[in-house]
Amino acid sequence: MRRIHPDVEDEPDLAAAYAYPRDAWLRLNMVASVDGAAWLKGRSEGLSSRGDKRIFGVLRGLADVVMAGAATVRTEGYGPARPRESWRALREGRPPAPPIAVVTRRLDLDLGGPLFTETEPYAPTIVVTTESAPKDRRDEAGRRAEVIVAGDDRVDLALAVRELRERGLGRILCEGGPRINAQLAAAGLVDELALTVSPLLVAGDAARIMNGVASLTPMALAQAIEEDGFLFCRYVRETRDDHTT
Ligand SMILES: NC(=O)c1ccc[n+]([C@@H]2O[C@H](COP(=O)([O-])OP(=O)(O)OC[C@H]3O[C@@H](n4cnc5c(N)ncnc54)[C@H](OP(=O)(O)O)[C@@H]3O)[C@@H](O)[C@H]2O)c1
What we know:
Layout: E1 2-5, E2 9-10, H1 14-17, E3 25-33, H2 50-62, E4 65-69, H3 70-75, E5 100-103, H4 114-117, E6 126-129, H5 135-144, E7 146-149, H6 157-166, E8 171-174, H7 178-186, E9 192-198, E10 219-227, E11 230-237, H8 240-244
Parallel strand pairs: 3-8, 3-9, 4-5, 4-8, 5-6, 6-7
Antiparallel strand pairs: 1-2, 1-10, 9-11, 10-11
Bound molecules: NADP nicotinamide-adenine-dinucleotide phosphate.
The site of NADP nicotinamide-adenine-dinucleotide phosphate has 31 residues, from strand 3, helix 3 and helix 7.
């Protein structure tokens, strides 16, 4: 791997390269093809690379909590984040692995699957849902996970983020998908996008990494790393302070 922006460095220290700037920070991590597709044959796997997976792991190690939309959890077959030896130093003073927080209204999740049955007590899965979610599913989820109710018909993502922060889970890593991402952006909650650009043209009808209501968030390129033709970019939201200093 070679960092090519803002400076040039071979084999940069990825944990330092992706260190959270603040304790309250929401980072999206996504991979896209050059022509902007967020999936290939319905999943992100075909767009990924060895380096992408390495960074994916480091980002999880740095995070207090991993957030994902229910469709991503279902499609990508999420289980709990398993602790890694390489995370030991990154997670000093914190649990060995971050919990997964799933955003869902319908609660159409496999509550008997690993995400709910193979968690450790230090990182129970968190279900972020609504008042209007089916009561029986909510009750069942409550027996296997921590349930946060944040909104009536839809999860109010600003409220959900506040609830996570109140639990000491301020460094949020959102792993998509595009529908959750668009809502986070529209709510002004995206501090950073970690974007892997995969050197593929795929055309077709895959969504872009944001799929939903239009919004406009100016971003600055904070870092770019290259490996095997893949680009690993960090875009950080521009703030008014950035313009005045
Ligand atoms: N390229 C990448 O890096 C990447 C990353 C992640 C995912 N993906 C791909 O993206 C696809 C899935 O993404 P997606 O955009 O279709 O869906 P998504 O954002 O992962 O999940 C959408 C689901 O989340 C729940 N949800 C979203 N907003 C909500 C709200 N405000 N309140 C309550 N529930 C809410 C709903 O779940 P319920 O239906 O349960 O109510 C909704 O169906 C998959 O193909 C996956 O492979 C790609």
